Amino acid sequence: MKKWKWIVLTLTGICLLLLFGSGGYVYQKASRTMQEVQVQVPVKASIETEKAVEQKKGLSFLLLGVDQRKNETGRSDTIIVVTIDPKTNKSQMISIPRDLKTEIIGNGSNDKINHAYAFGGPQMALDTVSHLLDIRLDYFAEINLDGFTDLVNAVDGVTVENDINFSYYEMQFPKGELSLNGKEALAYARMRYDDPRGDFGRQ
Questions:
Q1: 3-state helix, strand, coil in the chain (%, to 5)
Q2: Torsion-angle region of 14 (φ positive above 0: left; ψ -120 to 50: alpha; else: beta)
Q3: Which CATH number describes the domain made up of 3-150?
Q4: How many CB atoms lie within 10 A of CB 171?
Q5: How many CB atoms lie within 10 A of CB 143?
């Protein structure tokens, strides 16, 4: 495998795990997890992206969490852009609200941004987010609900600091530090209406 492909796969795996993981433990689990969960990570790079990797310039990733039912394309209800700067060893993440109305590139319409995936799959989602933020997006990774559950289980669960009491699908989530398995983490992440901050609180 080319060096730049390995870099991209490793960084993407770490980006996905960092949504709930931490530190060196995440790094050790990254390779194994990427093999175990249902994550799609295209590794075909443009010449511009290959040059950016070789010159140690920043890269941008689009992470998509897809609510996908049987025989449906699904919608990307979680949309996160991650930028990584190898010169400063820093990364930044921005979460885009799924109901944000914007121009859907390639569809000729203005609609909720999560519909871009439903209309044209990951490529239309990538084009739409790239246009919205006016940045180059080098790669994307997508994961569905089953993949999310597998991802959390692959790192032996996650610990979160819950700031409100709520229940979801008969699961109780009291305020405070919680250790969650894959099924519990998915329910925790999907709760929306009990949070007074709505979708912003969930993000």
A1: 40, 30, 30
A2: alpha
A3: 3.30.420
A4: 14
A5: 23
> Edge-to-edge strands of the sheet including 90-96?
39-40, 139-144, 59-67, 75-85, 90-96
Q: Which tens digits make up the pLDDT trace of 49-102? A: 566 656 666 788 898 888 877 777 788 888 999 888 877 878 888 999 888 999
Of 172, 179, 181, nearest in space to 191 by CA: 172
Tokens 């295209």: give the residue: 42
Rounded Cα distance between 16 and 5, Å, is 16
Instruction: Sort 3 into a burial class: Cβ within 10 Å, 0-12 / 13-18 / 19+.
Output: exposed
Domain boundaries, the chain: 3-150, 157-202
Burial 86-110 (b: 16+ CB within 10 A, else e): beeeebeeeebebeeebebbebeee
